[in-house]
Amino acid sequence: MEIEQYLEQEMPRIIDEWSSLLRIPSISCEASHKSDMYACAERWRELLLKAGMQKADVMPTTGNPIVYAEYMTDTCAPTVLVYGHYDVMPVEPLEQWRSNPFEPIVKDAKLYARGADDDKGQSFIQYAAFEYLRKHNRLKCNVKFILEGEEEIGSPALTPFMLEHKELLKCDIILVSDTSMISRDIPSITTGLRGLAYWQIEVTGPNRDLHSGHFGGAVANPINVLCKMLATITDEHGKITIPHFYDDVLPLSAEEKEMIQSIPFSEEQYKSAIGIDAVAGEEGYSTLERNSCRPSFDICGIWGGYTGEGSKTVIPSKAYAKVSCRLVPNQDHHTISEQFAEYIRTIAPQSVKVKVTPMHGGAGYVCPIDLPAYQAAAEAFEKAFGKKPVAARRGGSIPIIADFEQILEKKTILMGFGLEENAIHSPNESMDLNIFRQGIIAVTEFYNRLPNRL
Amino acid sequence: MEIEQYLEQEMPRIIDEWSSLLRIPSISCEASHKSDMYACAERWRELLLKAGMQKADVMPTTGNPIVYAEYMTDTCAPTVLVYGHYDVMPVEPLEQWRSNPFEPIVKDAKLYARGADDDKGQSFIQYAAFEYLRKHNRLKCNVKFILEGEEEIGSPALTPFMLEHKELLKCDIILVSDTSMISRDIPSITTGLRGLAYWQIEVTGPNRDLHSGHFGGAVANPINVLCKMLATITDEHGKITIPHFYDDVLPLSAEEKEMIQSIPFSEEQYKSAIGIDAVAGEEGYSTLERNSCRPSFDICGIWGGYTGEGSKTVIPSKAYAKVSCRLVPNQDHHTISEQFAEYIRTIAPQSVKVKVTPMHGGAGYVCPIDLPAYQAAAEAFEKAFGKKPVAARRGGSIPIIADFEQILEKKTILMGFGLEENAIHSPNESMDLNIFRQGIIAVTEFYNRLPNRL
To answer: Whole-model pTM above 0.90?
Structure first.
């Protein structure tokens, strides 16, 4: 049966099985969801065996378990290692969801749920493509699946797992569906990712909350201090001021700049889609350069003092922020992490105590477009979407891609099918079911076109 | 019966009655406590009648009700208007309380509860003094009580109430117990208060939370912008940078500086009491000048983005702060409020929308120490505490004191019995029962010494 006909016939069942994963609230950063992590891993294991894997295991790690499955058909054929993650982001602010984040619903040809795209949806594209080829005996290569449960918290257990199971994970190419296309009309394959460094900052002033009338003006307010420190991290040109921060940033080549300029992009549409009047960022760079090829500094969360209704006049004892830098390939996140902590130590006034806790980090990645596997992916995209895909460096981070390269010594093809409008990490995350269908076709085409020597 | 003997005999009952007020969670800034406001007002009315007031009413206002009571004995004698408030501050962070904030407990001669000092405790000192004099027919003057339920939210209904009931509130002097002494060993009477202006700031960036990888560096982050704006409000010399902010600030006279220097004060003890290594504030001023006679800027609360466990990489749609300035006498809080909003408008970048909402404000106050009523209060303090009290300008704000002067055209004597260690507005608020007792004695002495012509 051809893939198009198969999908027409099987889609309701595929959505049912996919939904069984989406219903499990596998939020990795909240300890209360520990048992959901195991439930989700176990559900993946059942499904992978059902799809025709020869073996599938829920393997313990120092953190959440890893699901590993394999189908080995021909020792001479190349082996594809498919990576995905079954953990999801928190769902706050819950009141902005139009439906229960863990009760998938289909509306206007989109499926809404936390994880609908990132990454239960995209992983399920991989799953459905494998199932189709396997059931119809059209799989010419070996396939391994590895699904982790800690991607959204920086994959702390994955690197040790890889080091321990290098033989098990041996492969010729790694295939990951966890990135986005530029848009529905501009299919693209991600050829670069940014790195990440993330910290929590705690500023402690007085040993208890103080009345701002009795103490105001004479005692350092931890929130005032925190804001002042954070404000200095970027200057009026949008540059990050941490000493030596840009030392390892490679300048964009004329060729890279040209490739970015060739991407159809409307700044007006970009602004209107997210409801802003003006973009902002590093001077001398375009929006697409800023959000993909240049580092950035964002305060992801801040809190302290009285945040309830009305007005309370208080100097709080403590103030906190969660802050992150997106990094570019060649910047080492360990070095940046130390530079940041050192910088904060340097600027912290004596009137408060400041603690910087590194949360997680990862390196960036670049994939050369002359790689045979990249060529197979590009042709598969053209077949599925009717257009040659753009090779695009993107702004997000998948720190473990750099680890794959280092430990497994293989390149990764980022066949991502997300769309910006899918609102990953945000309320009302969704997956367009037509893109989902085209994604499954693209992955089957990739397997069909993969050359024997990689 | 003499007051000392009376208090020895009656203290358990007095604490019982006082506790009946403390048990009512009359938090004025939280709408859910509306019915508690009425319950607390009603309980005060019952108590005031029981203490011997000729009448006591719970009077409606545009907000929480006002309790008014009077005892008129002699039309030729002076009339004292006692002001207090029955509303209290919120109790967050609740986990830092060692006992239920609304279940008063006595431990080591201190009573612990929200409002134990501010202002149910201090108002009850006034109450007990009145009750003693009234029961023993020793009251030579007329006494009116007015207790409001919105002091902690800026007394929005009190000024209209005063304007409407000027005749009812007619008096010769106003007596308020809602301030602190310098310390247990340094009895003091507050002769000056700072004014206040308070705002909430809302910064809106994109119309939804964005993935910081896909957008970071290209879109203004509302928290980054908020921190940058707030950081500019004070400079490296601790000066407030809002244009024209200091225009109406009167310089401290040599005499005032001398009086402040004469106050016994140990900066080492001050720092160790609140657990800080260094004080901080406006250059060229001492700690006591900074926290009483100079304006200040404090961020009382800040929030935005992801504040839960772990790390979420997000550019939030919104960020918020609650900010306030303490003002000094002669600074107009309306003018400052407009200057602040105008300043924020000026510095807000085009990449975000900024909304400034004035929350409340009030003028400062100065009481001349040659006032006969001040002299009576000073003698009463000396009698009760065994030491001549220091005349001290303090840093807190009671905005309605300035309104009393403007509308009722009378001065206020601030006979306050608080202590810094009472931790008002903070967890584990308390009242020292010995100070409570001395306070009652001081108020009865004040009535005894009040001259017929004020």
So the answer is: no
